[in-house]
Amino acid sequence: MAAEHLRGRTSERAELDRVLEAARGGHSAVLVIRGEAGIGKSALLRSLTEDAAGFRVEQTAGVESEMELAYAGLHQLCAPMLDGLDALSEPQQVALRVALGLASGDPPDRFLVALATLGLLAAVAEERPLLCVVDDLQWLDDGSAPVLGFVARRLLAEPVALVFAVREPSGEPLLPGLPELRLRGLDEEEARALLAMAVPGPIDEHVRDRIVAETRGNPLAVLELARGVNAAELAGGFEAAIGASGSVDFRPRLAALPADTRRLLQLAAADPVGDPLLVWRAAERLGLGPQAATPAVDADLLEIGTQVRFRHPLVRSAAYRSAPAAERHALHAALAEATDADAHPDRRAWHRAHAAPGPDEAVAEELERSAARAQIRGGIAASAAFLESAATLTPEPGERVRRLLAAARAKRDAGALEAALSLLGAASAGPTSAVQAAEVEHLRGQIAFDQRRAGDAARLLVGAAERFESLDPALARETHLEAIGAAIWAADPDGIRAAAEAARVCPRASGAVDVVLDALAVRLTEGYGASVPALRQALGTVLAQKGPDGDLGRWLWLTGLRATGLIALELWDIDAWHELASRQVEVAREAGALVQLQFALNFFARCRLACGELADAAVLIEEEHVIAQAMGGSAVGYNEMQLAAWRGEEARATELIERMTRESSARGLGRMVDVAAYTKAGLYNGIGRYDAARDAARAGFAHRDHLGYGMFVVAELAEASSRTGDPALVEAAVDWLSERTPVVRSDWALGIEARVRALLNRDDAERSYQSSIAHLGRTRLRMELARAQLLYGEWLRRNGRRADAREHLRSALDTFDAIGARGFGERARHEVLATGATVRKRRDDTRDDLTPQEEHIARLALAGRSNPEIGAELFISPRTVEWHMKKVFIKLGISSRKELAGALPVPA
User: Fold this and answer.
1) Distance between CA atoms of residues 28 and 154, nearest Å
2) Which residues contact residue 848 at a Cβ distance below 8 angstroms, ignoring those fewer than 6 apart?
3) Which domain holds residue 884?
4) Is the CB of residue 827 less than 8 Å from the CB of residue 790?
5) How many CB atoms neighbour CB 313 within 10 A?
6) Where are the alpha helices (DSSP H) in 25-124?
7) Which of 93, 321, 623, 699 has the fewest CB atoms lying closer than 10 Å?
8) Which has the minimum average pLDDT: 536-550, 691-705, 769-783?
9) In a domain, 24, yes or no
10) Can you tell me the distance from the alpha carbon of 391 to that of 364, in angstroms, rounded to the nearest whole number?
11) Same structural domain for residues 98 and 157?
């Protein structure tokens, strides 16, 4: 029958041959086969495995009834390869063992599990090429599918072929962006030929044409229809069950079977495992003997060997759906009784849930225990599914609300935000306690922020915090801090003040959250000067906490941009900002918490950009992109926008700025609109378009409180306005700075203030420029120092002091060239030429020939990282690292890592 299904698939089989040849040649190959049910996906996969001579072949398949079991599909794929675990690092081994239920431990991060899977496949492929086949991806559980998607995107230089089959339409697009093969129906000629193979003897021409037309070339439909009609019908007319898409309906064939056979098929369809011993134990409880299988086997619908297999997934679906609800309860009850409660407690709980005709507390408790086990294994989505089922089966209303809330939290953690909101709606309809009502509002606010509805989030979180005040003061304070953070992102002055005023009247609890919340609330209600002592206390308190005390996510949130990071900026403390940011990256990386690591990298990259360390920032941005791609999401984006601006890449920066402005405006993220305006001002100041820079800076400076932001935009506003003859705007910038520098005497603040005062071109301009250079020279802010030197040199040249100007302009030019700030570099180069001096032509740095990932790998190698260490950090295999390093050596014209220092110097 397989040969019949492959008729007319010559080009498709050639595509699969290319996949195998790539893996045989030592390079990875990924292919996603897409098509409707019965179109021939499974037949192509069988052909692929038969043609994989010399390969190790491992397979898994999604089962509709097993989608709630965490990592079930991954376990099926990896179980035969677990002897290769020793090749992995210990954290990866532990993560994969815990995820697969083979060991106990802390819940592993899903992407550490994914990295371990990638490493396992790469290790196994060292012996001989590996072919991994995943059928019915649309039914794979929510733990396995993202892991295999991650692996598919990170394979490169390993002899691994990974082929998926996806039934479409399948709701949300699965594995977008990967190479794909779309299967269509056979053309008329091939469909007729297939029908002729299946039906010996003559067929009425009109009947043949009708069969071909109604099946739309679907091979399974053609074969099943031919099987279901007799010679008389083929001679003159027929009636058959063909769906609108041309797919076949197996219900008539199932209906023709004996009752016991139909029931056995329904039982087998209800079991996701395919274990024949389990099926026979359950069948015995239903009074079904082995003879019941014979008609199904003879009809080529079922195969019973080492596993129970259906001829096609459509047969399984049709069999299960043919059972009335009461019969399904009986089937699952029998399977639950036959399932070993010690070996497979979660499958037993799942069957018991489907067997329950109504609320059942005992079953709900069992499901809740399964949810806890799934959570321990890192199966967040599975945990949410078990909790949702447990809530549905809970008879007591208060207990039901508790479980609905737990399910909603798990759904939110799994990224299923709309599903979480639906569960919250159900919880709200029940008899909620005061605490539960507050929890509902709190979670609604958190989800609103996850959905980038910052203004809505702030209002909801303030309401939740006020509810918590008499119930849980510590949680109330944390929620008030969340609300302020959301309001800051919305950048609505009224919303910010409302959140801050609500926080100020909240009773104190204790701990770092208290001092941070108090400091921000004072800053936002009483102004800058009054808040500085509280801001300093808050920053010192958090810096004294060397690491998380158990709750990693909470610690990262507290020390990040929405809390203490803002305070470090308000205090113009670049060293504290750098310490907080670098510590976040270190802690998140060591914990393998990739979601948190993405945001930590973004936070640290922003700090590096402010310091003018553009090459280091580019490495961090690239790593954030790697994580975002691995998670199937997108990077935060604004650091990439700023990097392009500081590099003077006008077209690229403009595109990113416009996109950020458009998308942030649509989402109500006013802060990001302001950041885009500041970035535009910096871009245009660098390339000398001062009118545009002034307008952008003025838009970012107006009507905002500028928490953790004003120190950046005020300098751009002053510089652009001084060049366009707008002294009033320069005076406004000086006034803004004058409110801060008397109480914050950092070199950063004093250096920027002196630089801005110098732009007024008064009698003390030269002293102000010199003061700015002296202050900024004591910081790590190389970009700001070079800009001060550039402005001073320009001022000296305009005042006829060309020789003096030359010194400062050359220093600025050297710095801009060294850090890659080409816009400002060209501006400095023109100024040097205007002094009458000669300058060397700018030489494009060798690293320009490298891709971002190649440069990232080269820098990690330069820092002394081994290939396995680099692979673990970038989520690729050591073999892929080696492949990239060879390309780096060729592009840089070197032959060893020892030469990297000369070919790719570390920025000073």
Assistant:
1) 9
2) none
3) 847-903
4) yes
5) 22
6) 41-51, 72-78, 90-99, 110-124
7) 321
8) 536-550
9) yes
10) 7
11) yes
Q: According to the model, what pLDDT value does residue 433 have?
A: 94
The residue type found at 545 is Q
For residue 382, pLDDT over 90 is answered with no
Domain total in the chain: 4
Instruction: Count Cα neighbours of 525 within 13 Å in the Cβ-side half-sphere.
Output: 17
Q: Quote the radius of gyration of the chain (alpha carbons, Å).
A: 33
Residue 266: which residues within 8 A CB-CB, separation 6 or more? 319, 320, 322, 323, 327, 328, 331
- The SS3 assignment for 206 reads helix
Residue type, 220: L
Highest mean pLDDT among 191-205, 391-405, 507-521, 850-864: 391-405
- Residues 57, 104 within the same domain: yes
Q: Report residue 244's pLDDT band, with 50, 70 and 90 as the boundaries.
A: very low
pLDDT at 846 over 50: no
Same domain, 144 and 235: no
Q: Does residue 140 sit in the same domain as residue 30?
A: yes
CATH number at residue 578: 1.25.40
**Residues 439 and 560 both lie in one domain:** yes
Residues 6 or more apart whose Cβ sits within 8 Å of residue 550: none
CATH number of the structural domain spanning residue 125: 3.40.50.300
SS3 content of the chain, % helix, strand, coil (to 5): 70, 5, 30
In this structure, are residues 36 and 167 in contact, taking their beta carbons and an 8 Å threshold? Answer: yes
Name 643's Cβ contacts closer than 8 Å, sequence gap at least 6: 609, 614, 617, 618, 621
Q: Which residues contact 685 (CB under 8 A, 6 or more apart)?
A: 693, 716, 719, 720
Residue 390 exposure: Cα atoms within 13 Å on the Cβ side? 28
> Which H/E stretch holds residue 163?
strand 160-167
Which residue, 230, 249, 268, sits at the end of a domain? Answer: 249
pLDDT over 70 (residue 548): no
| Pick from 282, 291, 370: nearest CA to 330 | 282
Beta bridge partners of 58: 132
Do the domain assignments include residue 763? no
Containing 725, the helix (H) or strand (E) segment is none
The yes-or-no verdict on residue 630 having pLDDT over 80 is no
- Verify that 204 and 161 share a domain, yes or no: no
Looking up residue 863, the CATH number of its domain turns out to be 1.10.10.10
Q: And the tokens for 209?
A: 């044409």
In a domain, 826, yes or no: no
* Phi, psi for 390 (deg, rounded to 5): -60, -40
Neighbour-count burial of 734, counting CB atoms closer than 10 A to its CB (0-12 exposed, 13-18 middle, 19+ buried) = middle
d(CA 444, CA 425): 10
Distances (CA, A) of 567 to 455, 521, 564, 574, 773: 21, 11, 5, 11, 25
**DSSP state at residue 551:** -
- Same domain (yes/no): 520, 447: yes
Range 302-310 contact pairs with CB under 8 angstroms and sequence separation of 24 or more? 302/265, 302/268, 304/276, 304/279, 305/276, 306/276, 307/274, 307/275, 307/276, 308/268, 308/271, 308/274, 308/275, 308/276, 308/279, 309/274, 310/268, 310/269
- Residue 548 belongs to some domain of the structure: yes
Tell me which of 249, 270, 289 is where a domain ends.
Answer: 249
Measured between alpha carbons, how far is 37 from 215 in angstroms, rounded to an integer? 12
Q: What is the pLDDT of residues 731-778, one digit of tens each?
A: 999 999 999 999 999 999 999 999 999 999 888 999 999 999 999 999
Q: Are strands 308-310 and 302-304 parallel, antiparallel or unpaired?
A: antiparallel
Please check whether residues 207 and 107 belong to one and the same domain.
no
